[in-house]
Each structure stands twice: as structure tokens, then as C-alpha cells.
Design brief:
The protein has 13 helices and 13 strands. It is an alpha+beta fold. The protein has one domain. The strands form 2 sheets. Strands 8-9-11-10-5-6-4-3-2-13 form a 10-stranded antiparallel β-sheet. A 3-stranded mixed β-sheet has the order 7-1-12. The N and C termini lie far apart (41 Å).
Length: 392
């Protein structure tokens, strides 16, 4: 079977909320009204730190699909003022965030133990606060997300091949900056990280053979497998990968913005930024070329995300290894597309209703693991008010 990105059709129910006339969908999705509904109608579990696990009603997969967000909507009404990256969370929030991630990922790996049968991934994404509220394709809830998704491999095998020029795969042209123009220096810079548990691995070796993704991104194998998720030093290294990425992103786009090659004030690895990035003629040339394109092309200029936005994935490859990778997060490029999966949601109430009992049952089963950890309280949404699925 040819290795190629896949386009999968995921049925979704009809939206339960009415968008006011004259209001763009993404404006409404960011409103306190929608966030309140998300928790009350689709919430599963909440911690004292306001980490909210909820059912993805318009999601990626009907097999298993849930998210955790840092729900700051009740005390930060300004959508642009909410935390959108893990480095903006408090120490306590990050500790519980890591614990919930570990528990849910362990559940998925145990429930779906055969990599030949299911693709298992956990994808953390920042939602860049510099995005215009009404821009099409922009993430709808401006708070840091963690996605937990399972795709049956059979569904991916029978799905049609995606258009390789789809903006969701090309990241509206921005992804190519890191892959085609800066891949070498990007890899070189992230090699400065002192990692003991995470071991570098090429995406040629760790990519999903069916799709051929991810492509060319710095990637690391988690030596020791799932048991290492209990090791706090793994989460330290996972954080180091993010901090290194943020240095790269800030340095590059600061250079594009000002033309001035300087080390960002908040750099985590200032010496390496100076010696590896700013001493690279290629790094500076690509920034100059992009700067000129921004000046000349207003449409392209509007696509630039000046503040760092990322997607950090933990996924299981074909050989059962756990792999970490990281990329920028730009317009149109959702978490699954790093693995070559373009999800098209189509309203199909009958198809969704047929799959909903099984999906909710698995989400409630996963929630039991969080209950056992005693880190929060369940949410009795209408469809699972008594802890069992009840059609609405």
C-alpha cells in the first residue's frame, strides 16, 4: 500500500447552540457562553486547578477522542489574556497536567495494545493569542489543549489519500520553513538539549508507514516505554524540548520582525542561540527572505504568527515505540496533520448516534482512572448524569 497522507471523514452531530446572527463561529466559540456550555454539556472531569477533561463533540475520531484544557474562562474573560502554552502554567498546574496526561495515555496504550490495529497519540497544542478572533481556521478555544485520540488503522487504510497540497498538511506554507529551509539548523539547535531518557530518532525511522508522517521533524524515542511516564525526569525532558523550541521560534521571528540578530530576552539557552542560530548564515538568510516576503505580500504577512505557538506530540509508532516530536502551530494545521491525517467533519446525526454509546463508554472508562487518582471531581453532564451513557 502506498505511503500517503489520508483524509478521514468523521461524523458529527448538529451543533446544540445557535450562533447569533452576524457573529463569526470562531468569535462565538471563544465566548463565555460556549465555554460554559462545553463544561456543562460535555464536561467529564475537573480538577481544583481548573483542568477540564471534556468530550470532543466535533472531534477527530469516534473511537476515542477527548481533550484537557486549562479552563481559565471564569476568571480571565479576555480570550487574549489566557494561558496558551505549558510554560505559562503554574508549577502545580503543570504537575497535575502531566499526571492527567500520563493516566489517560496509559489507559489508551493498555486499551489499544496492538500498534498494527490502532494509532494512539497525545497532542498538546498552544493556541496563539495573536490570532485574530474572526480569522477562518483559527483554533476555537484560546486555552492550552491536550488531545487524546485513537484511530483504528483499518479506517485509515480505507480512507482516501489526502491532497498533498492541502493547507492542513502544508501549514499554510509555514511548516515548510522548518522542514525545507531550516531543517538542518533546527535539528542542530535542538541537539544542544541534555536529554538522557529521550533519545534522538529520525522521522524516516519513526514515521507511521501508512502515511509517511511526521516528516523531517526533530524526534525522540522514549527509552523504556510507557513505564517511563511515571518518571518525573521524563516530564522535565519533555519540558526541555518545548523550551528549546520556544527559543528557536522567538529568535527566528524576532529576526524576521526587526532584522536585528539578537538573543531574545527570555531565552532559555542564550549561549546556544548565539552560537548555533545567530552564527548560521542560512538561518539569517531565510529570515531575510521571509522578512522581504512579509513586506511585499499582505496576505502572507497576515498569516504570520509572531508569538510562539507549538504542537508537541507523544505517539506510538508502528513498532510500538513511544515517540516525541514538536512543530510550530499555524493557521489550518491541526494536531493530527503532523501524522498525516486530515480530518473532515461532516454533520451526520445518525452515524454519530450509532457510535456515541461506545465512544462515551470508553471516555467514562478512562475517567475512572482519574477518579481513582483522586485529583478532581466528576462532571455529571446530561448524557452521563449517573456515570452511564443516556441518549439525549
Amino acid at each position: 500500500m502506498k505511503s500517503a497522507a489520508r483524509e478521514i471523514i468523521t461524523p458529527r452531530p448538529k451543533m446544540s447552540l445557535t450562533i447569533p446572527q452576524g457573529m463569526a463561529p470562531v468569535e462565538f466559540f471563544n465566548s463565555p457562553t460556549n465555554l460554559k456550555n462545553l463544561a456543562e454539556e460535555n464536561g467529564l472531569f475537573r480538577t481544583p486547578e481548573n483542568l477540564l477533561m471534556y468530550r470532543k463533540l466535533i472531534g477527530h475520531s469516534l473511537e476515542f477522542d477527548t481533550s484537557i484544557i486549562l479552563d481559565t474562562s471564569k476568571h480571565i474573560l479576555d480570550p487574549l489574556g489566557r494561558p496558551v502554552r505549558r510554560d505559562q502554567m503554574s508549577r502545580t498546574q503543570k504537575k497535575v497536567w502531566n499526571q492527567m496526561t500520563r493516566i489517560l495515555f496509559e489507559y489508551m496504550l493498555k486499551k489499544y495494545s496492538d500498534p498494527a490495529q490502532h494509532l494512539v497519540l497525545c497532542g498538546e497544542a498552544s493556541l496563539d493569542a495573536t490570532w485574530p478572533l474572526n480569522k477562518p481556521g483559527v483554533p476555537s478555544i484560546r486555552m492550552i489543549h491536550n488531545h487524546f485520540i485513537v484511530f483504528p488503522m483499518q479506517d485509515l487504510e480505507t480512507a482516501k489519500q489526502a491532497n498533498p497540497t492541502d493547507q492542513n498538511l502544508t501549514d499554510s506554507g509555514h511548516h515548510s520553513l522548518f522542514l525545507r529551509h531550516l531543517s538542518g539548523v533546527y535539528h542542530d539547535f535542538l541537539e544542544i538539549l541534555d536529554l538522557q531518557i529521550l533519545s534522538p530518532i529520525s522521522t524516516t525511522e519513526s514515521s507511521i508507514k501508512l502515511t509517511g508522517y511526521p516528516q523531517g521533524l526533530p524526534s525522540w524515542e522514549l527509552k523504556g516505554g510507557v513505564d517511563m511516564l511515571k518518571n518525573q525526569y521524563f516530564w522535565h525532558e519533555y519540558e526541555q524540548v518545548l523550551l528549546g523550541f520556544l527559543d528557536f521560534y522567538r529568535t527566528f521571528f524576532s529576526l524576521v520582525s526587526t532584522g536585528d540578530p539578537k538573543v531574545p530576552e527570555q531565552a532559555n539557552f542564550p549561549q546556544q542561540v548565539s552560537e548555533v542560530l545567530l552564527d548560521s548564515s542560512r538561518f539569517q538568510r531565510v529570515a531575510r527572505d521571509l522578512r522581504e516576503q512579509v513586506i511585499q505580500d499582505p496576505q502572507f504577512a497576515n498569516e504570520i504568527r509572531w508569538r510562539p505557538a507549538y504542537k508537541q506530540l507523544l505517539y506510538r509508532d508502528d513498532k510500538g515505540r513511544l515517540i516525541v516530536t514538536i512543530s510550530q502551530n499555524s493557521v489550518g494545521n491541526a494536531i493530527t496533520e503532523l501524522l498525516g491525517i486530515v480530518v473532515k467533519r461532516e454533520e451526520d446525526e445518525a452515524a454519530y448516534a450509532a457510535a456515541e454509546p461506545g465512544l462515551i463508554g470508553r471516555l467514562l472508562e478512562a475517567r475512572e482512572k482519574l477518579i481513582e487518582a483522586n485529583i478532581g471531581e466528576v462532571i455529571a453532564a446530561p448524557s452521563w448524569k449517573t456515570g452511564e451513557f443516556v441518549p439525549q
